[in-house]
Backbone:
């Protein structure tokens, strides 16, 4: 009756994998928050819950010069959230000045109602962290977005715990220069790509290169996605060089690009 | 100058020449009178501002049983007169009589500014006064005068029956009221409730923890009163009375009315920390007071019921939590650090939006439910630079799209440019008297070879407004 664990795995590998998959999120304590799916099977199947974990910390690392693309990616994700609540952006007043400020009409152009946004400006690093934690603890917003200069393991554990407790997604934008290991559920690297153009050669949809560098209980991957702000929909980008190819026909062949 | 009340404006202008005109603001007058009457409750609990029928320009004080506290009626009258003159600059006419009708008549028509009528002599005092002293409507007065009754005395000794038949009931009623034959109830003014609780301490306290613990108890006391009146606090003031007499005050404002003890306590705790009020506690605080400086209606609500919320609509509970979060953040980070976007009707991109402090101005904003539909078909950047930054641009023709630009030390080769979107200056705006002649801007959405998208504009129309157009980077696209 006492079969070794290795034996049972050999016997019934898929069943055990299913069982583990069922158990894992429970141990992480993230089961109460609904995941945020991309609506794109190619990406969602890399993520353990079929979408970004709802109550977890997600790191978003812009490539050099691609901060606005990373912001666009976050705004696109927020626009897809099911809960129509307020969103808190915690933005340090010191490091971010250089890149300007979030523009409500621009957020609107990406499909996010600027009326839902509340901008919190902080003067010091510890205030930034305090404000992020406070926003999570209150459970009032639908999601919290923070900008931070550096993130170490302890800090990320703390924020991850706060996000898990609150059952809210926390998106943390951080520079690429100093990357340390962290407790975040996912780490995305975002780079700008030449936009999708319509048949008149006008810019139609924003296009980003998404690299899922780390994903707890999932796999990493790389995709080129487009975001349609009217339908709030992500789609895989067609081959860049050859715009003559029909876009949708290529979706499957690109899904394994990473 | 010989101006008379009720005179036509043209006549008054003819007499006085230069006149300042202001429309009558009876609502403000009524409020001021009410406040004055409230002040006058220092003499007696029953103060009653005059209604419109009484002229709405004074108030009755029922000083029965209160006069001796001020050293008799003469002393009270002198004190009231002096204080009105000194505190408010009002040269008042005051009369003391047994009935309110007679007092009104004497205050208006007696020769002296202040007078005191001994009891039982109402009829005698009223005899020489004009019929207007009876508080009658203008029509009744006009009819009486037409019939030859000029003074009250002419009326009093006449038989009552013909008057009852020919005049409205008001005439006899007013006469009886003035003479004290029938009662005239006064409508006392009711002071607005004061939400204040104060605690004196036997031993002075010094630590912030002790202050907060006491504040919690004070707020608990206040909560009962607030709940009774269905109001919530929008602004609170904590007063800390130091042993040496100095008073520290801490004010907090709230986004939504609240009766939540722990929320208020936490806000005050944060504020104390931020203000470092505790640093100069001296020998400690001997009394602590908590007052609601602004109360707003807050209907009773079911507080806890764990039902499945519809995710599409923010429920009351989450709005409240959101307001509480805004309050908390504002306490520590400062009132201007928590802001929300407010669209402004303007074409100039940097003016088309303002960031206003998230506060009382618009709590309804927390209730937004609608999804965003891009209202602007034109491209707008996600990040807007605080100031448009000058850039060097290479273009094929002076008024054509840019081909290459240099910004912040990096040269970007432009792969594609969309535009121009021409935005002219807002000529209807004028700054400090002179029209601002801002040049027209031609906006281009450009994409470099790496896929970064920028928002550039050229300032000035070539050859019409400027010879050498200047270029600026204003925003970054996602």
Residues:
């Amino acid at each position: 009756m006492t079969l070794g664990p290795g034996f049972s795995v050999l016997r019934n590998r898929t069943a055990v994998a299913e069982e583990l998959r069922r158990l894992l999120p429970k141990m992480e304590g993230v089961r109460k928050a609904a995941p945020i799916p991309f609506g794109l099977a190619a990406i969602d199947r890399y993520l353990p819950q079929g979408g970004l974990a709802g109550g977890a910390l997600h790191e978003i690392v812009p490539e050099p010069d691609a901060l606005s693309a990373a912001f666009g990616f976050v705004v696109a994700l927020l626009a897809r959230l099911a809960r129509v609540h307020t969103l808190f952006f915690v933005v340090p007043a010191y490091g971010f000045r250089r890149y300007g400020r979030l523009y409500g009409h621009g957020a609107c152009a990406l499909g996010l109602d600027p009326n839902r946004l509340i901008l919190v400006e902080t003067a010091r690093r510890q205030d930034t962290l305090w404000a992020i934690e406070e926003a999570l603890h209150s459970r009032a917003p639908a999601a919290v977005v923070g900008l931070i200069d550096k993130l170490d393991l302890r800090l990320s554990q703390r924020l991850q715990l706060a996000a898990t407790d609150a059952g809210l997604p926390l998106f943390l934008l951080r520079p690429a220069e100093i990357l340390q290991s962290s407790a975040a559920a996912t780490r995305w690297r975002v780079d700008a790509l030449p936009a999708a153009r319509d048949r008149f050669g006008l810019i139609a949809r924003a296009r980003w290169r998404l690299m899922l560098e780390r994903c707890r209980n999932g796999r990493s991957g790389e995709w080129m996605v487009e975001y349609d702000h009217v339908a709030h929909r992500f789609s895989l980008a067609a081959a860049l060089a050859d715009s003559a190819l029909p876009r949708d026909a290529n979706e499957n062949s690109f899904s394994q690009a990473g | 100058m010989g101006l008379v009340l009720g005179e036509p404006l043209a006549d008054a202008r003819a007499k006085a020449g230069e006149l300042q005109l202001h429309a009558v603001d009876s609502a403000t007058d009524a409020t001021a009178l009410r406040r004055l009457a409230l002040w006058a409750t220092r003499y007696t609990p029953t103060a009653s501002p005059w209604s419109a029928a009484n002229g709405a320009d004074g108030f009755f004080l029922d000083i029965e049983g209160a006069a001796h506290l001020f050293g008799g009626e003469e002393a009270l009258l002198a004190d009231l007169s002096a204080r009105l003159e000194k505190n408010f600059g009002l040269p008042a006419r005051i009369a003391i009589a047994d009935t309110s009708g007679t007092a009104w008549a004497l205050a208006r028509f007696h020769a002296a500014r202040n007078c005191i009528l001994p009891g039982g002599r109402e009829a005698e005092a009223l005899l020489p006064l004009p019929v207007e002293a009876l508080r009658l409507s203008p029509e009744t007065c006009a009819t009486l005068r037409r019939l030859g009754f000029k003074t009250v005395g002419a009326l009093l000794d006449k038989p009552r029956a013909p008057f009852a038949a020919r005049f409205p009931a008001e005439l006899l009623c007013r006469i009886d009221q003035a003479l004290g034959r029938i009662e005239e109830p006064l409508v006392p003014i009711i002071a607005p409730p004061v939400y204040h609780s104060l605690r004196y301490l036997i031993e002075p306290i010094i630590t912030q923890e002790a202050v907060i613990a006491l504040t919690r108890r004070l707020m608990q006391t206040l909560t009962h009163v607030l709940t009774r009146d269905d109001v919530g606090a929008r602004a609170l003031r904590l007063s800390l009375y130091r042993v040496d007499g100095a008073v520290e005050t801490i004010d907090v404002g709230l986004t939504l009315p609240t009766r939540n003890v722990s929320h208020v306590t936490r806000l005050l705790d944060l504020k104390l920390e931020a203000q470092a009020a505790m640093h100069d506690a001296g020998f400690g605080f001997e009394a602590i007071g908590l007052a609601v400086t602004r109360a707003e209606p807050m209907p009773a609500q079911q507080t806890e019921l764990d039902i499945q919320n519809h995710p599409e609509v923010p429920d009351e509970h989450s709005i409240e939590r959101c307001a509480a979060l805004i309050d908390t953040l504002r306490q520590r980070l400062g009132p201007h650090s928590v802001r929300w976007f407010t669209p402004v009707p303007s074409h100039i991109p940097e003016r088309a939006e303002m960031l206003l402090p998230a506060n009382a101005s618009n709590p309804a904003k927390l209730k937004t439910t609608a999804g965003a539909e891009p209202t602007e078909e034109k491209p707008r950047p996600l990040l807007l630079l605080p100031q448009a930054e000058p850039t060097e641009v290479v273009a094929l023709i002076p008024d054509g799209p840019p081909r290459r630009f240099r910004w912040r030390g990096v040269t970007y080769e432009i792969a594609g440019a969309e535009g121009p979107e021409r935005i002219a200056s807002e000529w209807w705006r004028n700054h400090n008297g002179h029209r601002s002649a801002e040049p027209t801007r031609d906006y281009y959405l450009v994409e470099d070879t790496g896929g970064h998208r920028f928002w550039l504009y050229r300032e000035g129309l070539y050859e019409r407004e400027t010879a050498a157009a200047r270029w600026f980077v204003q925003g970054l696209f996602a």
Notes: The mean pLDDT of chain B is 83. Residues 136 and 171 of chain B are 7 Å apart (CA to CA). The first helix of chain B runs from residue 9 to 16. The first strand of chain B starts at residue 47 and ends at 49.
